[in-house]
Amino acid sequence: MQALVLGGGSIKGAFQAGAIAEVLARGCAPRIITGISVGALNGAFLTERAGRGAAGSVDWPAIGAELEQFWKANVRKPDDIIEVRSKGKVALSALFARFDGLVKTDRLQALVRKELNEDNIRNSPVALYAGSVNLADGEIVYAHRGFPNLLEYIIASTAIPIMMPIFMIGNRPYYDGGMRDIAPLKQAIDAGATEIICIACQPLKTGGADFNRGNILHLVDRVVTIMTNEILRNDLEYARFLNEYCPRDGTPPESGPLRGYRYIPIRIIQPAMPIEVQIDSFTRQDIAAMLTLGRYVARNVMI
Fold it and tell me: Are 302 and 26 in contact (CB under 8 A)?
């Protein structure tokens, strides 16, 4: 079964959306999608749209083009998805032990609820796994069609630590799945993938980009970028390790630590250089440029 593995990356998810559109136009027809953070949102969009049609009649190139158009039409400026809290409100909330993020995400949540129908995701021919971290026990949870409140887990996956409010599901606090997993390859393998296309929003190296040290949003973004880059490397190394030591004829090893695993063709799509776009200052031109870049990089990988 073909799987799409969609990593996290905040607003850089526009790069991922362009890459998705390109791979779908080139014949990719995923049966499994695993996603983290913005990858969970992009993956949920694909899964939901696939669930709108009759069984066996999914037009993947059209869905990819619709995802691109969604980004162009709905994510044009920061105010479309977030509201930056004033420094005074942030300071007071921290002082009185009521800190709830540097930005409000009510607009993003409203957009997700408007665009995605939970029943369509459940009835889709695509199996979606959206990762978020339960802060109470520190474990990552991959919500799927069998979960109640599935849309809540998808939204929870996007809650960037410190930058965004903790997302409550029932009485349990959740944050971005990127705290534990950036490119959820293992989840795709465990779900039965036989071929994987992984689309990451970051390069292998973070680079030496300058940033505004006095802007707490940018500081948090830089810290999260460094943290997630290391997690991404580990995720990719895990998949490479499996493929290096598993027989290429697809026969799973019968003993040892890799018992039950098998060689799986994996293509990785990621930018060569860091994408220097911030969630509090992007423009519609930035979104268009990232969509174009995503298509370009995917085209070269898929040749």
Answer: yes
> What is the tens place of the pLDDT at every residue in 257-299?
666 667 788 899 999 998 989 899 999 999 999 999 999 999 9
For the chain, the distance separating the N- and C-terminal CA atoms, rounded to the nearest angstrom, is: 20
**Inter-residue contact 4 to 280 (CB < 8 Å):** no
Let me know if 219 is exposed, middle or buried by CB neighbors in 10 A (0-12, 13-18, 19+): middle
Supply φ then ψ for residue 176, to 5 degrees.
Answer: -50, 130
CA distances from 287 to 24, 33, 155, 273 (A): 19, 23, 21, 17
Are the C-beta atoms of 21 and 6 separated by less than 8 Å? no
Helix H, strand E, coil C: the string for the chain is CEEEEECCCHHHHHHHHHHHHHHHHCCCCCCEEEEECHHHHHHHHHHHHHCCCCCCCCCHHHHHHHHHHHHHHHCCCHHHCCEECCHHHHHHHHHCCCCCCCEECHHHHHHHHHHCCHHHHHCCCCEEEEEEEECCCCCEEEECCCCCCHHHHHHHCCCCCCCCCCEEECCEEEEEHHHCCCCCHHHHHHCCCCEEEEECCCCCCCCCCCCCCCCHHHHHHHHHHHHHHHHHHHHHHHHHHHHHHCCCCCCCCCCCCCCCCCCCCEEEECCCCCCCCCCCCCCHHHHHHHHHHHHHHHHHHHC
The strand pairing partners of 268, in sequence order, are 198
pLDDT at 13 over 90: yes
User: Is pLDDT of 250 > 70?
Assistant: no
CB contact set of 93 (below 8 Å; sequence gap of 6+): 85, 99, 100
CA distances from 34 to 43, 187, 238 (A): 7, 7, 16
Q: Would you call 202 exposed, middle or buried from its count of C-beta atoms within 10 A (0-12, 13-18, 19+)?
A: buried
Q: Please tell me the pTM assigned to this model.
A: 0.88
